[in-house]
What we know:
Elements: H1 19-41, H2 43-67, H3 72-75, H4 78-88, H5 92-102, H6 110-125, H7 138-149, E1 155-157, E2 169-171, H8 178-181, H9 191-196, H10 209-221, H11 228-245, H12 259-264, H13 268-275, H14 286-307, H15 312-321, H16 323-329
Antiparallel strand pairs: 1-2
Helix pairs in contact: 1-2, 1-5, 1-10, 2-5, 2-6, 5-6, 5-7, 6-7, 7-15, 10-13, 11-13, 11-14, 14-15
Amino acid sequence: MNNTVVISTPPHVKSRRTTRGIMGDVCIALLPSAIAGIVFFGYMAFVIELIAVLACVATEFVYYFIAKGGFAKKCKNAKSVCISWWKQFDLTSVVTGLILALILPVTAKWYEVIIGSIFAIALVKMFFGGTGKNLVNPATAARVFMFVSFSSLTSYVAANFGPVLEGETLTGATNLADFLLNGNHQSALSTLDLFLGTGVNGSIGETCKLAIIIGYVYLCVRQVIKWWQPLLFIGVFGLSAVLLSGFYFTPYRFDISLFLPHILSGGVLFAAVFMFTDYVTSPKGVYGQLVYYIGGAILLALLRYFTKLEVASFAILIMNLIVPLIDKYCIRKPFGYVKVKKVKKQKEGK
Protein backbone atom coordinates (compact mmCIF):
# COMPACT_ATOMS: atom_id res chain seq x y z
CA MET A 1 0.00 0.00 0.00
CA ASN A 2 1.32 3.40 -0.98
CA ASN A 3 1.37 5.69 2.08
CA THR A 4 2.74 8.73 0.24
CA VAL A 5 1.13 12.00 1.34
CA VAL A 6 0.90 14.69 -1.32
CA ILE A 7 0.84 18.29 -0.04
CA SER A 8 -0.09 21.07 -2.46
CA THR A 9 -1.26 24.67 -2.36
CA PRO A 10 -4.97 25.57 -2.72
CA PRO A 11 -7.30 25.49 -4.51
CA HIS A 12 -7.69 21.71 -4.28
CA VAL A 13 -9.70 20.30 -7.19
CA LYS A 14 -10.06 16.56 -7.57
CA SER A 15 -10.36 16.28 -11.33
CA ARG A 16 -8.27 15.97 -14.46
CA ARG A 17 -8.02 19.74 -14.75
CA THR A 18 -4.63 21.24 -14.02
CA THR A 19 -3.47 24.74 -13.19
CA ARG A 20 -1.94 24.99 -16.64
CA GLY A 21 -5.23 24.02 -18.27
CA ILE A 22 -7.22 26.54 -16.23
CA MET A 23 -4.74 29.31 -16.94
CA GLY A 24 -4.88 28.39 -20.61
CA ASP A 25 -8.64 28.96 -20.51
CA VAL A 26 -8.10 32.35 -18.87
CA CYS A 27 -5.65 33.29 -21.63
CA ILE A 28 -8.23 32.37 -24.26
CA ALA A 29 -10.89 34.40 -22.41
CA LEU A 30 -8.55 37.41 -22.36
CA LEU A 31 -7.87 37.25 -26.11
CA PRO A 32 -11.05 39.16 -27.18
CA SER A 33 -10.10 42.08 -24.91
CA ALA A 34 -6.48 41.95 -26.09
CA ILE A 35 -7.50 41.96 -29.75
CA ALA A 36 -10.06 44.75 -29.17
CA GLY A 37 -7.34 46.81 -27.51
CA ILE A 38 -5.10 46.44 -30.55
CA VAL A 39 -7.95 47.38 -32.92
CA PHE A 40 -8.91 50.42 -30.86
CA PHE A 41 -5.49 51.73 -29.80
CA GLY A 42 -3.21 50.59 -32.61
CA TYR A 43 0.08 48.75 -32.69
CA MET A 44 1.29 50.24 -29.38
CA ALA A 45 -1.29 48.18 -27.54
CA PHE A 46 0.20 45.01 -29.06
CA VAL A 47 3.70 46.15 -28.10
CA ILE A 48 2.68 46.70 -24.47
CA GLU A 49 0.90 43.33 -24.31
CA LEU A 50 3.91 41.53 -25.78
CA ILE A 51 6.42 43.28 -23.51
CA ALA A 52 4.36 42.58 -20.37
CA VAL A 53 3.93 38.87 -21.14
CA LEU A 54 7.58 38.33 -22.09
CA ALA A 55 8.84 40.30 -19.08
CA CYS A 56 6.65 38.33 -16.66
CA VAL A 57 7.68 34.96 -18.07
CA ALA A 58 11.36 35.97 -18.15
CA THR A 59 11.22 37.21 -14.55
CA GLU A 60 9.68 33.94 -13.38
CA PHE A 61 12.33 31.94 -15.24
CA VAL A 62 15.27 33.98 -13.89
CA TYR A 63 13.95 33.84 -10.33
CA TYR A 64 13.40 30.07 -10.58
CA PHE A 65 16.81 29.56 -12.20
CA ILE A 66 18.61 31.41 -9.41
CA ALA A 67 16.57 29.84 -6.60
CA LYS A 68 17.18 26.30 -7.90
CA GLY A 69 20.94 26.79 -8.20
CA GLY A 70 21.20 27.23 -11.93
CA PHE A 71 24.33 29.35 -11.54
CA ALA A 72 25.94 27.03 -8.98
CA LYS A 73 29.07 25.09 -9.88
CA LYS A 74 29.68 27.12 -13.04
CA CYS A 75 26.12 26.50 -14.28
CA LYS A 76 26.68 22.74 -14.25
CA ASN A 77 23.02 22.14 -13.41
CA ALA A 78 21.65 24.76 -15.81
CA LYS A 79 20.10 22.26 -18.23
CA SER A 80 18.27 20.27 -15.56
CA VAL A 81 16.99 23.48 -13.94
CA CYS A 82 15.64 24.70 -17.30
CA ILE A 83 13.88 21.39 -17.88
CA SER A 84 12.46 21.48 -14.35
CA TRP A 85 11.15 25.02 -14.90
CA TRP A 86 9.43 24.08 -18.13
CA LYS A 87 7.73 21.08 -16.51
CA GLN A 88 6.30 23.25 -13.74
CA PHE A 89 5.45 26.21 -16.02
CA ASP A 90 1.71 26.71 -15.50
CA LEU A 91 1.00 29.85 -17.58
CA THR A 92 0.23 31.95 -14.49
CA SER A 93 2.95 34.43 -15.45
CA VAL A 94 1.42 34.72 -18.94
CA VAL A 95 -1.97 35.52 -17.40
CA THR A 96 -0.40 38.06 -15.04
CA GLY A 97 1.43 39.79 -17.87
CA LEU A 98 -1.62 39.90 -20.10
CA ILE A 99 -3.91 41.24 -17.37
CA LEU A 100 -1.33 43.85 -16.38
CA ALA A 101 -1.04 45.03 -19.98
CA LEU A 102 -4.81 45.24 -20.41
CA ILE A 103 -5.28 47.44 -17.34
CA LEU A 104 -2.59 49.88 -18.48
CA PRO A 105 -3.16 52.91 -20.74
CA VAL A 106 -1.47 52.88 -24.13
CA THR A 107 0.61 55.86 -22.94
CA ALA A 108 2.71 53.55 -20.73
CA LYS A 109 6.41 53.53 -21.59
CA TRP A 110 8.12 50.23 -22.45
CA TYR A 111 10.48 50.41 -19.45
CA GLU A 112 7.57 51.14 -17.11
CA VAL A 113 5.85 47.98 -18.32
CA ILE A 114 9.02 45.94 -17.69
CA ILE A 115 9.45 47.38 -14.18
CA GLY A 116 5.80 46.67 -13.36
CA SER A 117 6.10 43.10 -14.67
CA ILE A 118 9.22 42.43 -12.59
CA PHE A 119 7.46 43.83 -9.52
CA ALA A 120 4.41 41.62 -10.11
CA ILE A 121 6.29 38.35 -10.56
CA ALA A 122 9.43 38.72 -8.45
CA LEU A 123 8.10 40.59 -5.41
CA VAL A 124 4.40 39.77 -5.31
CA LYS A 125 4.38 36.18 -6.58
CA MET A 126 7.75 34.37 -6.45
CA PHE A 127 9.03 36.04 -3.28
CA PHE A 128 6.12 34.51 -1.33
CA GLY A 129 6.63 31.04 -2.77
CA GLY A 130 5.16 31.07 -6.27
CA THR A 131 1.78 30.03 -7.60
CA GLY A 132 -0.92 29.70 -4.95
CA LYS A 133 1.05 31.44 -2.20
CA ASN A 134 0.83 35.13 -3.13
CA LEU A 135 -1.19 37.29 -0.74
CA VAL A 136 -2.54 39.69 -3.35
CA ASN A 137 -3.19 39.60 -7.08
CA PRO A 138 0.20 40.26 -8.77
CA ALA A 139 -1.23 42.29 -11.67
CA THR A 140 -3.30 44.42 -9.29
CA ALA A 141 -0.37 45.13 -6.99
CA ALA A 142 1.82 46.02 -9.97
CA ARG A 143 -0.84 48.39 -11.35
CA VAL A 144 -1.07 50.22 -8.02
CA PHE A 145 2.73 50.36 -7.78
CA MET A 146 2.96 51.80 -11.30
CA PHE A 147 0.14 54.27 -10.63
CA VAL A 148 1.97 55.84 -7.69
CA SER A 149 5.40 55.64 -9.36
CA PHE A 150 4.89 56.92 -12.92
CA SER A 151 2.99 60.09 -13.81
CA SER A 152 2.47 58.98 -17.42
CA LEU A 153 -0.02 56.36 -16.24
CA THR A 154 -2.55 59.04 -15.30
CA SER A 155 -3.05 60.06 -18.95
CA TYR A 156 -5.47 58.09 -21.11
CA VAL A 157 -6.13 58.32 -24.82
CA ALA A 158 -9.47 57.86 -26.54
CA ALA A 159 -10.20 54.45 -28.01
CA ASN A 160 -10.37 54.98 -31.77
CA PHE A 161 -9.55 52.86 -34.76
CA GLY A 162 -5.99 53.12 -35.97
CA PRO A 163 -2.84 54.65 -34.46
CA VAL A 164 -3.10 57.03 -31.52
CA LEU A 165 -2.67 60.68 -32.46
CA GLU A 166 -0.95 63.37 -30.44
CA GLY A 167 -3.25 65.45 -28.25
CA GLU A 168 -5.94 62.80 -27.84
CA THR A 169 -5.29 62.42 -24.13
CA LEU A 170 -7.29 62.88 -20.97
CA THR A 171 -5.55 63.34 -17.65
CA GLY A 172 -7.33 62.06 -14.56
CA ALA A 173 -10.05 59.46 -14.59
CA THR A 174 -10.15 56.85 -17.34
CA ASN A 175 -13.54 56.46 -18.98
CA LEU A 176 -15.57 57.72 -16.05
CA ALA A 177 -18.08 59.81 -17.93
CA ASP A 178 -18.90 63.45 -17.32
CA PHE A 179 -21.60 62.53 -14.80
CA LEU A 180 -18.82 61.48 -12.42
CA LEU A 181 -16.43 64.29 -13.20
CA ASN A 182 -18.66 67.33 -12.86
CA GLY A 183 -21.79 66.05 -11.20
CA ASN A 184 -24.28 67.01 -13.87
CA HIS A 185 -25.03 63.37 -14.77
CA GLN A 186 -24.77 64.10 -18.47
CA SER A 187 -22.34 62.03 -20.47
CA ALA A 188 -21.00 63.04 -23.86
CA LEU A 189 -20.87 59.33 -24.69
CA SER A 190 -23.93 57.19 -25.25
CA THR A 191 -24.50 53.88 -23.49
CA LEU A 192 -23.67 52.11 -26.76
CA ASP A 193 -20.34 53.98 -26.93
CA LEU A 194 -19.52 52.91 -23.38
CA PHE A 195 -20.47 49.31 -24.21
CA LEU A 196 -18.45 49.06 -27.42
CA GLY A 197 -15.63 51.33 -26.24
CA THR A 198 -15.70 53.74 -29.18
CA GLY A 199 -14.34 57.14 -28.22
CA VAL A 200 -13.81 56.10 -24.60
CA ASN A 201 -10.70 57.21 -22.72
CA GLY A 202 -9.38 54.20 -20.88
CA SER A 203 -6.99 51.32 -20.51
CA ILE A 204 -6.20 48.90 -23.33
CA GLY A 205 -8.45 46.03 -22.34
CA GLU A 206 -11.12 47.77 -20.28
CA THR A 207 -12.84 49.88 -22.92
CA CYS A 208 -14.67 47.27 -25.05
CA LYS A 209 -17.24 45.69 -22.73
CA LEU A 210 -18.46 43.35 -25.47
CA ALA A 211 -15.04 41.67 -25.55
CA ILE A 212 -15.08 41.31 -21.76
CA ILE A 213 -18.53 39.70 -21.84
CA ILE A 214 -17.34 37.21 -24.47
CA GLY A 215 -14.50 36.24 -22.14
CA TYR A 216 -16.94 35.97 -19.23
CA VAL A 217 -19.22 33.60 -21.15
CA TYR A 218 -16.25 31.43 -22.13
CA LEU A 219 -15.03 31.18 -18.52
CA CYS A 220 -18.53 30.22 -17.36
CA VAL A 221 -18.92 27.56 -20.06
CA ARG A 222 -15.52 26.12 -19.17
CA GLN A 223 -16.51 26.29 -15.47
CA VAL A 224 -13.41 28.28 -14.59
CA ILE A 225 -15.50 30.81 -12.63
CA LYS A 226 -18.98 30.71 -11.15
CA TRP A 227 -21.47 32.69 -13.19
CA TRP A 228 -23.00 34.49 -10.21
CA GLN A 229 -19.76 35.95 -8.84
CA PRO A 230 -19.19 38.76 -11.38
CA LEU A 231 -22.93 39.41 -11.64
CA LEU A 232 -23.26 39.83 -7.86
CA PHE A 233 -20.34 42.26 -7.80
CA ILE A 234 -21.62 44.28 -10.78
CA GLY A 235 -25.18 44.43 -9.43
CA VAL A 236 -24.20 45.58 -5.94
CA PHE A 237 -21.70 48.07 -7.33
CA GLY A 238 -24.22 49.56 -9.77
CA LEU A 239 -26.89 50.04 -7.11
CA SER A 240 -24.37 51.48 -4.63
CA ALA A 241 -23.05 53.91 -7.25
CA VAL A 242 -26.58 55.03 -8.16
CA LEU A 243 -27.43 55.62 -4.50
CA LEU A 244 -24.26 57.66 -3.99
CA SER A 245 -24.82 59.64 -7.20
CA GLY A 246 -28.13 60.88 -5.80
CA PHE A 247 -26.23 63.09 -3.36
CA TYR A 248 -25.25 65.36 -6.24
CA PHE A 249 -28.84 66.59 -6.25
CA THR A 250 -30.70 68.85 -3.81
CA PRO A 251 -33.02 67.41 -2.69
CA TYR A 252 -31.74 63.82 -2.93
CA ARG A 253 -32.75 62.04 -6.15
CA PHE A 254 -32.54 58.34 -6.98
CA ASP A 255 -31.95 57.93 -10.74
CA ILE A 256 -31.84 54.28 -11.83
CA SER A 257 -30.97 55.36 -15.38
CA LEU A 258 -27.40 55.88 -14.14
CA PHE A 259 -26.98 52.15 -13.44
CA LEU A 260 -25.66 51.20 -16.89
CA PRO A 261 -23.32 54.22 -17.29
CA HIS A 262 -21.78 53.42 -13.91
CA ILE A 263 -21.08 49.74 -14.59
CA LEU A 264 -19.93 50.43 -18.16
CA SER A 265 -17.50 53.16 -17.07
CA GLY A 266 -13.94 52.44 -16.01
CA GLY A 267 -12.67 48.95 -15.34
CA VAL A 268 -15.63 47.59 -13.36
CA LEU A 269 -16.53 44.77 -15.75
CA PHE A 270 -12.93 43.73 -16.37
CA ALA A 271 -12.18 43.68 -12.65
CA ALA A 272 -15.33 41.70 -11.89
CA VAL A 273 -14.60 38.99 -14.49
CA PHE A 274 -10.82 38.62 -14.49
CA MET A 275 -9.45 40.04 -11.23
CA PHE A 276 -11.90 39.65 -8.36
CA THR A 277 -12.40 35.99 -9.37
CA ASP A 278 -8.74 35.07 -8.88
CA TYR A 279 -8.63 31.67 -7.15
CA VAL A 280 -5.68 32.39 -4.88
CA THR A 281 -6.65 35.82 -3.54
CA SER A 282 -10.39 35.28 -3.04
CA PRO A 283 -12.18 33.43 -0.19
CA LYS A 284 -12.66 29.69 -0.53
CA GLY A 285 -16.14 29.34 1.02
CA VAL A 286 -19.46 30.50 -0.43
CA TYR A 287 -20.31 32.71 2.57
CA GLY A 288 -16.86 34.27 2.43
CA GLN A 289 -17.25 34.91 -1.28
CA LEU A 290 -20.56 36.66 -0.69
CA VAL A 291 -18.89 38.97 1.83
CA TYR A 292 -15.94 39.46 -0.53
CA TYR A 293 -17.91 40.45 -3.63
CA ILE A 294 -20.50 42.57 -1.83
CA GLY A 295 -17.85 44.32 0.29
CA GLY A 296 -15.60 44.90 -2.73
CA ALA A 297 -18.48 46.36 -4.76
CA ILE A 298 -19.49 48.81 -2.04
CA LEU A 299 -15.85 49.76 -1.41
CA LEU A 300 -15.25 50.47 -5.10
CA ALA A 301 -18.42 52.57 -5.32
CA LEU A 302 -17.31 54.63 -2.31
CA LEU A 303 -13.78 55.12 -3.61
CA ARG A 304 -15.01 56.20 -7.04
CA TYR A 305 -17.56 58.58 -5.51
CA PHE A 306 -15.01 60.40 -3.34
CA THR A 307 -11.96 60.31 -5.67
CA LYS A 308 -13.67 60.67 -9.08
CA LEU A 309 -10.96 58.32 -10.38
CA GLU A 310 -10.85 54.74 -11.64
CA VAL A 311 -9.60 52.95 -8.54
CA ALA A 312 -10.67 49.35 -9.15
CA SER A 313 -7.12 48.11 -8.53
CA PHE A 314 -7.03 49.80 -5.11
CA ALA A 315 -10.35 48.21 -4.13
CA ILE A 316 -9.14 44.77 -5.22
CA LEU A 317 -5.86 45.19 -3.33
CA ILE A 318 -7.65 46.17 -0.11
CA MET A 319 -10.09 43.25 -0.38
CA ASN A 320 -7.23 40.82 -1.08
CA LEU A 321 -5.55 41.87 2.15
CA ILE A 322 -8.63 41.13 4.27
CA VAL A 323 -9.37 37.75 2.66
CA PRO A 324 -7.55 35.89 5.51
CA LEU A 325 -9.93 37.57 7.99
CA ILE A 326 -12.93 36.65 5.85
CA ASP A 327 -11.81 33.02 5.67
CA LYS A 328 -11.26 32.99 9.42
CA TYR A 329 -14.71 34.22 10.41
CA CYS A 330 -16.76 32.83 7.51
CA ILE A 331 -16.00 29.22 8.34
CA ARG A 332 -16.61 26.72 5.56
CA LYS A 333 -18.62 23.57 6.15
CA PRO A 334 -16.29 20.55 5.78
CA PHE A 335 -17.02 18.32 2.80
CA GLY A 336 -19.50 15.61 3.81
CA TYR A 337 -20.19 17.20 7.19
CA VAL A 338 -23.52 16.33 8.80
CA LYS A 339 -24.67 18.31 11.80
CA VAL A 340 -25.20 16.13 14.85
CA LYS A 341 -28.63 16.56 16.38
CA LYS A 342 -28.67 17.22 20.08
CA VAL A 343 -30.61 14.72 22.13
CA LYS A 344 -32.86 16.33 24.71
CA LYS A 345 -32.30 15.09 28.24
CA GLN A 346 -35.31 13.56 29.89
CA LYS A 347 -36.31 15.01 33.22
CA GLU A 348 -35.71 12.83 36.24
CA GLY A 349 -38.69 11.02 37.56
CA LYS A 350 -40.27 10.37 34.17
